[in-house]
Write a structure and sequence with these properties.
About 50% of the residues lie in helices and about 10% in strands. The chain is of the alpha/beta class. Strands 2-1-3-4 form a 4-stranded parallel β-sheet. Helix 2 crosses helix 15, helix 4 crosses helix 5 and helix 12 crosses helix 14. The radius of gyration is 19 Å and the shape is globular. The chain starts with a strand and ends with a helix.
Length: about 270
């Protein structure tokens, strides 16, 4: 069994519990042991680095130190925002002056030797895809989906280095393997509005309406996401979008791990 450090982040500990539960169950079925990062803290999300860049760096840096102290060489992260913040911190701390300042002022020394992966990346490695094939019991035949990666999982490309920045394929190929019909669409990496849901809700509702409209136009039965905020901003706000735009989509937004579990025949 392969061991990964597992950083769930705040969303998976709260509003996206189904992502957390399905991720753990699917990884266990495949043979991946997830060891939750000891005493992890919030990554800072979209707010900390906008308000205080040094704090925005220190928060993920502390998590990186915690991961390194576990004695593992890989960490998998389901949340795209958490993933981006951890990778960004690793990138910033490659600078010796920044790393030294972090050690002197905050007491956090990061070696930078742990590989941080998005969970979608972890589960679509060739060796894992072979296991996915062998575990399939209930193929998703007849289900038409569009894959929604969101804007953070592939950007900035020089830091996250995940798939293709404009046209990622990892989730498309995974769901095709699971038996679903993956429909091409132009909004794979569009922004959902992110934390503007709090201060500028109308922006998020407009973004969600565009995404749902296009998904419906191309004939999708569902949207499949890999980011807690993307999923929440579309799925949980469909009622508000209906009220504002008078469009009733009835479009479910699943996490890719939920559909993996269903294809595996899990409850």
């Amino acid at each position: 069994m392969t061991t990964y450090a597992y950083y769930p982040g705040c969303s998976l500990d709260g509003t996206s519990k189904e992502y957390n539960e399905s991720s753990r169950v699917v990884c266990k079925a495949i043979g991946l042991e997830l060891q939750e990062v000891t005493d992890w803290n919030c990554c800072g999300g979209s707010s900390a680095h906008m308000v205080n860049p040094w704090l925005g760096l220190a928060l993920p840096a502390r998590n990186l130190r915690q991961i390194e102290s576990m004695g593992v060489d890989r960490c998998t992260v389901p949340c795209s925002a958490c993933y981006e913040r951890l990778r960004d911190a690793q990138h910033a701390l490659k600078d010796e002056k920044t790393n030294r300042r972090m050690a002197d002022e905050v007491g956090i020394k990061v070696a930078g030797k742990v590989k941080v992966e998005h969970l979608l990346d972890t589960l679509t490695q060739p060796e894992q895809l072979e296991k996915v094939k062998s575990l399939m019991k209930k193929p998703l035949a007849g289900l038409k989906v569009v894959c929604y990666y969101g804007c953070l999982i592939t950007r900035p490309p020089e830091i996250v280095a995940f798939d293709d920045v404009e046209n990622p394929r990892r989730m498309d190929d995974l769901l095709t393997m699971l038996g679903a019909e993956v429909i091409p669409w132009p909004f794979k990496t569009e922004c959902c509005g992110a934390v503007l849901a709090i201060g500028r809700t109308e922006v998020v509702l407009a973004a969600g309406h565009r995404l749902l409209t296009m998904a419906k136009q191309v004939g999708a039965d569902a949207i499949v996401a890999a980011c807690p905020l993307c999923q929440s901003n579309i799925d949980a706000r469909e009622g508000e979008i209906k009220g504002k735009y008078d469009d009733d989509f009835k479009m479910p937004v699943y996490f890719f791990t939920e559909l993996m579990g269903l294809a595996f025949g899990l409850s």
